[in-house]
What we know:
6% helix; mainly beta; Homing endonuclease LAGLIDADG domain-containing protein; three-stranded antiparallel sheet; 52% strand; six-stranded antiparallel sheet
Amino acid sequence: MKLKLKSKTITAAWLIEGFEGYFIGHDNKMYRIATRREIRMVLNGYSKGYYLNRKFCSLTYLRPLLRKIEI
Length: 71
């Protein structure tokens, strides 16, 4: 899967199970397919994570949900 941004094209490396509209590119940044934008990592208390579909998901919660895309 490729996502074309204004200045570059991002190739997906990881998909997130349960969150079909999001992926992690080969540059290790998270993107949302619908808006074609990068999702920023945030700090909630002492936990790093992302807001996906208005729900905070920490990195420890997301790690088992990642599925590698084989090319």
